[in-house]
Structures are given as C-alpha cells and as structure tokens.
Fold:
Amino acid sequence: MSIHKPAVSPLAIGRDIYQHRYLLKTMIWREINGRYRSSLLGVLWSFITPLLMLAIYTFVFTVVFQARWNIEAEHGQATFALVLFVGLIIHGLIAEVLGRSPGLMYEHGNYVKRVVFPLQVLPLVPCCSALFHFFISVGMLLLVILLLGHPVHATLLWLPVVIAPLMPMLAGLAWLLSALGVYVRDISHVSGLIVTVLLFVSPIFFPADALGETFQRFMYLNPLTVIIEQARGVLLWGQTPDALALIGYSVVSCSVAWLGYMVFQKARGGFADVL
Structure:
C-alpha cells in the first residue's frame, strides 16, 4: 500500500490556497470573532491597543530618551508620532504571526488527529488575521493624519503593493514555526525573543540613515526595514514605491514561503504521534 506524500512544489502553495479558500475564509472570520467575542469593548481593542502603545512609545522616546529625527524641526513632534506609528503597526503584523505560530498545532490538536484535514491551511489563518488588524490600524493612522492636519497623499493607495511582498514571508515563517513548534517546544520562547529584538533593531524608533554605512548594510538584512521605509514613503511623504527593492524583496519572500511550506509538508506526518 503506497503512502501519499504531500506536494511540496511552489505551485502546490497556490493550488492549496485556491482549493481551500472557503475553509480558509471561514477560519479567518472565526479567529477574528473568537478573539473579541467575550470582551466588553470587542473589536475596539484593535483601535485602543495600537493608540495606547503609540502614546507610550512617543512619550518615552521623545521626552525621556530625547530621540530625534530630521523631521521635527520642519513638521514637529506630531509627525514623529506618525512615523513611529507606521513602524509599530508593521512590526505588530509580524509579531502576531511569530507569536501565534509555534503553538498552532497544539491549539488545533483535534484537526491534526483527523484522518483528512488540510493542516497546511492552519498557519495561514494567523497571517490573514494579522493582516486584518493591520489594515484596521492603518485606518486609525489615516484618521490621526487628518486630525493632525498632515497632508494625505494619493500614494497611500500603493500601500497594498508595499505590504504584499511581506505576506509570503510571513506565511513561510508561520509554516516553519508551526511545524518546528510541534517537536521543539522552546520555539515559542525563541520567537518571542526574535519579536522583541526586531522591535529595537528595525528602523522604528530611529531612521536607517542615522546609522553608519556599515551598520546600514546589516540593517537591510532585517526583513522589516524595506517594508517600513517603503510604507512610510507612500503614507507620509507622498513617494512612490521603489519597484526594484520590492521585486528583490518578493523573490526572497517567496523563497522563504516555499522553504517553510516544504518543511511543514515534510514534518506533518509525525504531528499526530507527538500530539
């Protein structure tokens, strides 16, 4: 009796997403609704949390640590808050995926033990849920921009193009971490540490060009650097995206997605035995 081996080709990723699109949609909305079902304020927490963190970080880095960008003299501290907010919501996007992924198979152990269930769909749920919360935060950002009287640029319509290259990488990391998390429980601690490190080594609280040329090269190895800088450009400065940078990023991102998908499909056969 031959054992069916899951497909691991790049085309299999798109085929899986299309084939299980309705299941994926249902699980995404269940994830979003389940998060706020029992809370008093419900989905309002998606607005409150980033605004609260924005206020705290702005106070700490502008008042306590006296952080400075080159924009304060011309635009004031309010613009610094916007610059900071863009970085924070993009970091929040990857933080949610890295935080949820390692324990994903344990959370859905009943699905893992079923004879037939497309387990490869599960890691995509936190990715899409995080994207949903990201765009809620973007809506809040646009509201703050209007309230502060900052110019609203038509280039903000490029934002989905800027964020799109990041999503395959997030999916790849979700597949990779959810598979490794089954066999190595310490992965959750490692991913939490990585999230914290990314917060302080990404150009969130400081501009990338504030570093020396040598350190800037290392900065661009950070998966958030290009996306944060491009997002700030289209949202705040009226700049069009750097097509070459995004194309190069997309190639790397799709490679990470394929690697993560391949590891997940190879490892899934032993999930039920461990769980």
User: Anything to note?
Assistant: The two ends are 25 Å apart (CA to CA). The chain has a mean pLDDT of 87.
